[in-house]
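Give me the fold.
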Amino acid sequence: MKNKNIALLTIIILLALIAGYVDLPKSPGLHIGSFSRDFKIRQGLDLQGGLQVLLEADLPPDQEIEAGSIDQAARIIGNRVNALGVVEPLVQTQGSRRIIVELPGVEDPEQAIATLRETSLLEFVDAGNIFLPVGTIIQTTYPQLWSEGATTHEVGPAPTITPTAISPTPSPTPLLTATAPITATTGLSLEVPAVTTEAVPIAAAPTPSPTPATPTRVYATVLTGNDLKAANPYRDPNTGQFGIAFELTDAGARVFADFTTAHADYDRTPYYYLAIVLDKEVISCPHIKSPIPEGKGEISGNFTLDEANRLAIQLRYGALPVPLRVETTRSIGPTLGQDSIQRSIRAGAVGLSIVLLFMLVYYRLPGFLANLALILYGLLNLAVYKAGWPVLLLIGLVMIVSYLLDRRDVWPALLGVVLLLLTFGTAIAGFAGVTLTLPAITGFILSTGMAVDANILVFERMKEELRAGRSLGSAIEAGFSRAWTSIRDSNISTLITCLILYLFGTRFGAGTVQGFAVTLALGVIINIFTAITVTRTFFRLVFDWLGDRFRVHRLLMGI
């Protein structure tokens, strides 16, 4: 048993060292291969200020807005803001036509505003045998699609094919290429055609040159952004160019496969073009070299990283159900001055010091061990705030290991499994840390008091057992076992309350309530680990080393 306790203590010390590394004021972060994470404190709007944007429906005042449209627009904007990496934004509706967005710590207000209000309709358009230069504004059949019978047709003067004189002229070279020859198992690479201005030798006979289409031609829409399953920015390792890698839904992939199969030119002229159009403006016009069955591809061009990221966000989260205009924008200073922040930190430090001193004076040795666990509790909380789900993953694994080393109680394993499931859920949701606002700090301080409360329950039960004449070893185990049910029930009640508060904040846009709920819930979860697993490990080791020798010193045990 002693060796098992030493092994568990070693694991706890390693966990403390990892938490200390994350908590360093200038922690270098963790960068291993493709995994990269910076460890930094994220401050909310009340601590660092930010940007407030008031959006209003860009419709005539007398036009009625469809029920639920503003709420849906607010949800889409919330998704876009989260994808921008803005932590704990506030997105809430105001009346039936307005949305208020508050963004803490935004570094590029113009990019944020553009991402919020732009609708970005992506279309894959049947251009036929006519090459459409980048930047051409066209008309499409949307909302009618090619799969519904839409065709490219004329509504005015048709484009003409004119002979090109035998002279050096710019020659567009639209290509549909991939990193390997396109076959039934390769993806699609859509590249903006490059135009060269070098002299090109031309054969003696005049060669027809396609004239860019006029707006009198209406092009059939084959697919839209609604058929996208995923869209993410990427950087070509060969050229260094930024682009957007996309994947179509199963239904979209089938339509795309049918269209490319029917119109593949197999690199023979005349080429058959499939234009990629964003908000009726051509951004790429490759020709269809061969059938594309997989529904995966890339949109590449002269994008900067910010442009590629913004376009991917707009495509991923779709168009807004109603057009919005920016009514007002203003920068918001911290609602708490720097002096108020320093006073809050000082008050928290003084309060924590008083609690530690009380535990040490009243409970003596048990209080000292509880203080060590409480310090670890603070380190782990701060590490979760900075690093997010990886720290929760480590805590869950340590709880499972503690059960494997000591199988007398099954609840550490159950809690560890629950925490692992919670960790996987938060990892999928992209939980990268907590935004510290004043309510969030309040939640942490409240959870600290609850952590001390758990230790007090254990110690009082332990003292009762010692007064009843039981040995120190059995008193320690009985104290933890008898107190566990009370600790479990109180913590479950608190977690249910946190869930209600979080859902309330989600439904009514009360981001500050969400912050309080998140930090309080995290504190409760970590408290179960430190107040039970860590403190009991300390007690068992002290008992193993000293035995019953200090049982006669009642003052040492706080009796």
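The chain has three domains: 2-41+336-387+437-550, 50-119+328-332, 122-306.
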